[in-house]
């Protein structure tokens, strides 16, 4: 039975072991090898599962027909090749999809249905847009020093765009990059509103967004930073609220709990830290999750469950009870690091006596897998 070492303190001498004995069922219901590349991003949007790969491909797959499509390899009509390098992140807002790329750009897509009633992705724009670039390039103060011998306008990312987040109302897009910047975009006209330069001391790998506008960024510099929009008359810019420093190595993934009171962070130190807001609005570590043998690469939250993917080729399913977290299951089947995770409640199989979930995973073994998880209530 999988177990979890619980630590309510940063001092391992105060750690205690707990076991969770619950008849959790789990099995892989779909598995497919993605040819010629690995999966670098994964997201659910409506009736589709969108995937981004290391060789510039974005695919849209009907979730209720995954087995059929995979078995018949009938995927070419739902594939787009774009940009240069890997598609690092995908986010969905209504029928708009935003993709982050290794070529320093963000692309905007719309789901269209053609006369044959087959959906496809149509590109609307590349960020920064031509008009945004044109308005800034002629004004010297809009140019920033990128390297010793290179300048660029502040609306440009100058390295891989590593992660994206979109507000609940779909009006604001946030992007982070290995160039150490956080940028904020207005989705109605795709204008770059703000760029937080040198937001971290090293590459930024992850971003998470709360419904009330707090932005969490995680970096290779081992720090998590929380940003908040100022309501001052002088200008509604984002300012640094606080810096969280507990991890011993670079942070790769962030996720918020369903009620947004808890922040989860996964890092190359093999730890998942559970941060909770205190009465005075500070974030404190209430638990450190240990179990993975290698770096934590991906996190996903569904209901009261936390899913973690690791370079140790496993996925762990965690549940917290009053700041004590238990490992409900360890999913084994990947033959490479699990780079991407997303999850959802499976309402068709849930009942009054049990809850059912679907976990979608992918990574460096080029496999896409769908897992069915059943948990008694």
From TrEMBL:
**Positions of the WD repeats?**
154-195, 197-227, 244-285, 289-318
Pfam families to which the protein is assigned, alphabetical: WD40
- Xref: Gene3D superfamilies: YVTN repeat-like/Quinoprotein amine dehydrogenase (2.130.10.10)
SMART domains in the record: WD40
**Keywords for this entry?**
Repeat, WD repeat
Domain of life per record: Eukaryota
Keyword DNA damage (UniProt): no
Which InterPro entries does the entry mention?
A: JINGUBANG-like, WD40/YVTN_repeat-like_dom_sf, WD40_PAC1, WD40_repeat_dom_sf, WD40_rpt
Fetch the CDD domains from UniProt: WD40 (cd00200)
The protein's name is Uncharacterized protein
């Amino acid at each position: 039975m999988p177990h979890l070492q619980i630590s309510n303190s940063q001092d391992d001498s105060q750690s205690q072991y707990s076991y969770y004995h619950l008849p959790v069922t789990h099995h892989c219901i779909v598995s497919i090898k993605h040819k010629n590349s690995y999966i670098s991003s994964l997201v659910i949007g409506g009736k589709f599962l969108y995937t981004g790969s290391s060789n510039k491909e974005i695919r849209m797959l009907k979730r209720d027909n995954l087995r059929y499509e995979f078995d018949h390899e009938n995927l070419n009509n739902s594939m787009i090749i774009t940009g240069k390098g890997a598609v690092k992140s995908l986010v969905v807002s209504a029928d708009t999809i935003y993709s982050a790329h290794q070529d320093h750009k963000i692309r905007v897509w719309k789901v269209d249905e053609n006369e044959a009633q087959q959906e496809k992705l149509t590109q609307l724009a590349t960020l920064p847009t031509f008009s945004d670039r044109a308005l800034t390039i002629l004004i010297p103060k809009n140019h920033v020093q990128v390297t010793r011998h290179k300048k660029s306008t502040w609306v440009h990312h100058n390295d891989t765009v590593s992660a994206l987040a979109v507000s609940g109302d779909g009006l604001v897009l946030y992007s982070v990059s290995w160039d150490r910047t956080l940028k904020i975009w207005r989705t109605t006209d795709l204008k770059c509103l703000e760029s937080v330069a040198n937001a971290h001391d090293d590459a930024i790998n992850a971003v998470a967004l709360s419904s009330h506008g707090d932005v969490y960024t995680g970096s290779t510099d081992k720090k998590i930073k929380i940003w908040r929009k100022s309501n001052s008359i002088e200008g509604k810019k984002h300012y640094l609220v606080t810096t969280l420093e507990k991890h011993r190595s670079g942070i790769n993934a962030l996720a918020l709990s369903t009620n947004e009171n808890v922040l989860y962070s996964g890092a190359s130190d093999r730890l998942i830290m559970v941060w909770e807001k205190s009465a005075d609005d500070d974030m404190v570590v209430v638990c450190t999750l240990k179990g993975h043998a290698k770096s934590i690469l991906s996190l996903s939250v569904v209901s009261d469950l936390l899913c973690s993917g690791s370079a140790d080729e496993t996925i762990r399913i965690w549940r917290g009870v009053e700041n004590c977290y238990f490992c409900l299951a360890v999913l084994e089947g990947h033959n490479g690091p699990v780079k991407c995770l997303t999850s959802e409640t499976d309402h068709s199989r849930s009942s009054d006596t049990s809850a059912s979930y679907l976990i979608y995973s992918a990574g460096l073994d080029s496999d896409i897998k769908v897992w069915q998880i059943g948990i008694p209530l």
